[in-house]
Amino acid sequence: MVDQLKGRKTWVTRYAAIHLALNSGLRVSEIAALKIRDLSLDGRNNYLIVQRGKGKRKRDVHLDKEIVKHLKAYIDMKKSWGEPVTEDAPVFAGRSGNHFSGNSPAYQF
Question: What global pTM score does this model have?
Answer without folding.
Answer: 0.82
